[in-house]
Amino acid sequence: xxxxAAxxAAxxTALSSATSAPAVPxxxxxxxxxxxxxxxxxxxxxxxxxxxxxxxxxxxxxxLTEALGRIKKNTAYFRVNYLMVVLTTCVVTFAMHPSSLxxxxxLLGGWIYLLFIRTAPVVIxxxxxxxxxxxxxxxxxxxxxxxxxxxxxxxFFSALSFSLAVVLAHGAFREPDNLFIDDAESQQGFFNxxxxxxxxxxxxxxxx
Length: 208
Prior knowledge:
elongated, mainly alpha, two-stranded antiparallel ribbon, about 210 residues, 10 helices
């Protein structure tokens, strides 16, 4: 009497590959969730807009030294509000230039597809690209597209220049005498929002 046929060995392999496939979208979702959490933590630090737009606190600085001092103090206190002004200006500007917005969306889609969705290796001329080479390649393509092939760079710098001019003007004319700025805030500037970790947040370092 013959022994029963052995079960196919390929089934566990197929099962394991099927269960491991959703890991990449899951990683993307984790990063998006952490970015949203980090952004929410940052925007909780914004000051009331009634303080920003209080016309009774506006006055012309006596000289350049006083203007620079006001800008430093106001930037430390209103840094999140100023960031929202910059972001809102950029969003509105790109909404007025839909072609530039479409190009940015295409580039973002390319980054997401290459780094998170595509699981097959990228092969060029018979050579498989490493993760570092893929990032460098996409960075080069994005840089050339934004600053040389399209007007995206011009639109971005126009929005950035206008928003920074508004921020600097408000910082110079807004009297900071009635603002309560502790030692921790006085050591932080506008760009510390992007590089520093807000209190109570784990930051983005643990994602990478």
